[in-house]
């Protein structure tokens, strides 16, 4: 790292050519585009920013306006961190952070003077103090309001936090301790990991549009990773805890905040809510939050995963059973609907419900009454239904697999929960949260993530979303040594598709589609490999030496059968299925969500099959 902080000045940047940055700024007036590398930029009038501040403050109030503008900046900072990462090459973290200040200057925000900073990615250590000279944001604000008592460079503070958090792979928070708008000669900002601030509540509120939780969020609760674990792990961190079940994890991304706003609005109503989105994206967490902030909070929250229950048992699970109702029913039992009386019933993977169960559910929603299996009288129920699916229900309707009338009943308030790859700003928050969680649970002292690991985690495609991230960090904590950091090798063992350079995708700017293509191709490749590999191995093993009694390897038999070869040997379906499942588990390092995705199953369906497989293997 350069010893002289002046080196960050735009004319003489050692280590980083600001000219390199300039070259990435392209004006394309014919097309009406400005590009900074792959990001589309806008030239806006600085004076308009003062108007924006004023309008927002007057319509929303000071706090809300400040929060909104801070998050706007956070998003820009997070995007620029990707660019910095691409340009970074082999330079040190400190130099890379310096590049952020140069980007900030290039964008015309202020002249940034790094006063001191001190970065250690592996320890998660970050301390920075910067001076902003001639902040455009402060000037714009002062044109409207004059000098005041508040620091007002909200967007730029958000930028610094977004840039550093994304870069460090853990939440770093900046605060403006002095501002030009307060009459100081220049603005002074200080940044450090969020858990090292003593009273970060207010700043954190600015990063989270709508806290759905009453308790502390992941952002807040994140204690230093090196803190000594308590004597006994808290009950909330038990291994059996499902995804985020113990935490009110709230993201900082725009996409996630948008859902949170909708959840808050929906909570006041009695309307049916339908969460859409991939497995592991946090639909159940949101459903629980919805319940907790709704007028039904005092009632029960009952969750059921429709895909995890054998089809013939779904109805009795949902609606209960009357004694003698079906073979084996020796006593009457209430179903989930009745157990959720006065509260909320969460129906996950609703798209897998059987036809008869769909009919009964429709009636329950319409008439507000249910009938137990084998029962003769209707039971009134007062239950709010929240459903979730990762399927395209419209398509299921079109294919005749899902009742249209039920779809319309459920689709009153649809909410899309974006997959993790569309909200990469949230990744550092979750990384830090899970690191802390597993350090605590296993009484470990893993310090953080190496730079390579951070890069890999931020660039990964996350087919299994937050649940997959949780699994990987759990694995990392298990494999890394105490007092050292988690490295790539601790995280990705099982053939996860590691994009070589996937920065620059995933911000909903249309680039994502292109960026995903190689990865999808990779998945196809992986789908083919098990057979290919086995077939190749089989050629050697069974080849010349193999006697007529030794059957050809499964891959060969399947290939022969598929090709319609003469006299193809048998390839029993259960054998093929077992081989596929084992292969998928192996390739994903035992990650069930990712394996399920490979096989086109839900996670619950895969777990069901794995259990069956184990039974076969055992017996
Ligand atoms: Zn300022």
Characteristic terms for this protein:
disordered N terminus; binds zinc ion; 16 strands; Muramoyl-pentapeptide Carboxypeptidase, domain 2; globular; alpha/beta; single chain; Rossmann fold; 619 residues
Q: Provide the β-strand percentage band.
A: 5-15%
Number of helices: 24
- Biggest sheet descriptor: 5 strands, parallel
- Average pLDDT for all residues: 77
The CATH superfamily label of the domain at 5-207 reads Trafficking protein particle complex subunit 3
Annotated CATH topology of the domain at 5-207:
Muramoyl-pentapeptide Carboxypeptidase, domain 2
CATH class of the domain at 5-207: Alpha Beta
Low-confidence stretches: 1-16, 211-247, 499-550
The rounded distance between the terminal residues' Cα atoms is 62 Å
Dominant shape? globular
The helix content is 40-55%
- Name the bound molecules: zinc ion
The total strand number stands at 16
């Amino acid at each position: 790292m350069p010893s002289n902080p002046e080196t960050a000045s735009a004319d003489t940047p050692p280590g980083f050519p600001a000219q390199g940055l300039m070259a990435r700024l392209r004006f394309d007036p014919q097309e009406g585009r400005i590009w900074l590398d792959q990001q589309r930029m806008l030239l806006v009038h600085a004076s308009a920013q003062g108007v924006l501040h004023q309008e927002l403050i007057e319509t929303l109030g000071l706090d809300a306006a400040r929060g909104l503008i801070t998050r706007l900046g956070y998003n820009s900072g997070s995007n620029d961190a990707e660019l910095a990462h691409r340009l970074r090459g082999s330079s040190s973290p400190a130099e890379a952070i310096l590049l952020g200040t140069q980007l900030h200057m290039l964008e015309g925000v202020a002249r940034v003077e790094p006063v001191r900073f001190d970065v250690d990615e592996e320890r998660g250590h970050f301390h920075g103090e910067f001076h902003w000279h001639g902040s455009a944001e402060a000037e714009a604000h002062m044109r409207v309001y004059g000098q005041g008592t508040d620091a007002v460079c909200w967007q730029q503070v958000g930028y610094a936090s977004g840039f550093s958090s994304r870069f460090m792979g853990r939440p770093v928070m900046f605060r403006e301790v002095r501002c030009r708008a307060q009459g100081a000669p220049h603005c002074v900002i200080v940044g450090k990991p969020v858990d090292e601030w003593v009273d970060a509540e207010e700043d954190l509120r600015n990063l989270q549009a709508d806290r759905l939780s009453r308790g502390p969020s992941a952002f807040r609760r994140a204690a230093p990773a090196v803190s000594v674990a308590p004597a006994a792990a808290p009950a909330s961190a038990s291994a059996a805890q499902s995804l985020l079940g113990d935490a009110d994890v709230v993201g900082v991304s725009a996409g996630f905040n948008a859902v949170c706003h909708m959840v808050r609005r929906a909570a006041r109503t009695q309307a049916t809510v339908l969460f859409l989105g991939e497995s592991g994206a946090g639909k159940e967490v949101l459903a629980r939050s919805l319940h907790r902030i709704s007028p039904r909070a005092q009632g029960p929250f009952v969750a059921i995963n429709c895909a995890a229950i054998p089809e013939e048992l779904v109805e009795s699970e949902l609606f209960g059973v009357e004694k003698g109702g079906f073979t084996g029913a020796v006593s009457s039992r209430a179903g989930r609907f009745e157990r959720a009386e006065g509260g909320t019933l969460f129906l996950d993977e609703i798209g897998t419900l059987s036809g008869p169960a769909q009919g009964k559910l429709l009636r329950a929603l319409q008439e507000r009454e249910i009938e137990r299996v084998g029962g003769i009288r209707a039971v009134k129920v007062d239950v709010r239904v929240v459903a979730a699916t990762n399927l395209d229900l419209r398509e299921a309707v079109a294919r005749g697999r899902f009742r249209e009338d039920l779809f319309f009943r459920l689709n009153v308030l649809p909410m899309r929960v974006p997959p993790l790859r569309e909200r990469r700003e949230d990744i550092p928050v979750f990384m830090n949260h899970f690191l802390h969680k597993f350090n605590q649970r296993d009484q470990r002292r893993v310090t953080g993530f190496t730079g390579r690991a951070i890069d890999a985690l931020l660039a990964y495609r996350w087919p299994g979303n937050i649940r997959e991230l949780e699994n990987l960090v759990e694995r990392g904590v298990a494999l890394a040594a105490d007092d050292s950091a988690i490295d790539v090798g601790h995280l990705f063992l099982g053939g996860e598709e590691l994009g070589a350079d996937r920065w620059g995708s995933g911000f909903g700017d249309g680039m994502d589609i292109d960026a995903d293509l190689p990865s999808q191709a990779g998945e196809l490749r992986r789908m083919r490999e098990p057979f290919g590999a086995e077939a190749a191995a089989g050629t050697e093993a069974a080849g010349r030496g193999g006697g007529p009694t030794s059957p050809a390897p499964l891959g060969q038999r399947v290939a022969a059968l598929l090709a319609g070869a003469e006299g193809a040997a048998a390839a029993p379906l259960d054998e093929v299925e077992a081989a596929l499942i084992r292969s998928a588990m192996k390739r994903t390092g035992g990650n069930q969500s990712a394996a399920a995705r490979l096989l086109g199953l839900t996670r619950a369906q895969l777990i069901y099959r794995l259990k069956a497989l184990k039974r076969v293997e055992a017996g």
